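Running this now, will post back.
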Amino acid sequence: MSLAYASHELAVAVADLLIRPDDPSLPIHQPWWRQSLALGVPGIALLHVELAAAGLRPWQRAHHWLTAATSGPVTVGPDSHPFHGAPALAHVLACASTHQPGLYARALDDLDQAIAADARRRVAFAHARIDACELPALAEFDVIRGLAGIGAYLLRRPSAGEALHAVLEYLVRLTALLHRDGEALPGWWTGSGPNGRADTRFPGGHGNNGLAHGIAGPLALLALAARQGVVVAGQLAAIATVCSWLDRWRSDTGAGATWPYWITREQLRADRPPTPAAQRPSWCYGTAGLARAQQLAALATGDKVRRVTAGDALARALIDPGQLAATTDPSLCHGYAGLAHIAHRVAADAPPGTAARLDAQVPSLLSRIGPASVGPRRTAADLIAAASGPGFLEGAAGVALAALSCSTESTPASSWDSCLLTARLARPDVRSRTDVDT
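Update: finished.
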């Protein structure tokens, strides 16, 4: 059975078991169900959109799920974020409208206005925090809850304009040093632990490197924006600052380059990275997400060495027994599906030799999602019934979307994974604030 066929079959099997958004076997009574891209209706709708766009299932199913997502009030403002409420729903509607132009235009216009207003509010709060020399919360700038994730949505919207530039200008400022207690700290240094709460294991806070919650998310957005021709003053310098930080903490091991998930205050003061250990090379934390973010940065700045290093780090991670053993689930966020998806994306932007090495690992990664002997429908049922459920980020819909994207060499025009900051850009759309990066 070919990779393309097997991947299509799994994606279709998952979708065929998720036909009705009001199915009582689903967590329909949970308060997050209708608005959560990570866990609920929008993420499953995204799978149906992509299958319909590929001609594998009818558009009516996608419309049915989108109707369910829009059937009640939508959370906007401070209680919304990229994976819940207005930005989450807007992402899915934008993907659908890419394939069916004009559809959902009015709803998207309303959502865009609310998201832009919220982005401006968040940016103003962040600048005031920087002015006061206070440390940020992870949720201020990260992909899951913060401005990097909101910026990822704004980047794909032609009407984003001033709101997008405001986000990029804030992220540039985030990379400047912040002076606290007689020390110069990276501007993204947070006083909490990695879970966003006070943690005695992290006295003095930490510097988070991850794509989901750390500085790799802003790096990826700044790079994607530059690739799309959206440039504000200081943007390329900010990209260089973050890349230098990652170079500082990189360890070159027998299994390739690795980066720690985070840096503690003690390690920062000693200027010494932690001892390398086998860790999950996932999207959210680890080599896969960091490799993609750095590859995007390299493409944005013309850094041929970094482009090769990033691809090589991922290719070597995917054959390292220690790192693969640390990966224990099929999910998009931190499992085999996510590794296959990012390998596919990185390969598409890598030099031929590296691309071949990465492409060679995709079938093996997908095969770990479920035993071939049980067939796609049984695998799909097991994924939906698992504790991670039917959703996008850790559940069945995300696994299915990753499998579907790996089954074709082309990138879906909808860029369904732009919310993960792993997507490729179909074409440049120059909307620069300035022609000179100062």
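Residues 426-438 have pLDDT under 50 and may be disordered. More later if anyone needs it.
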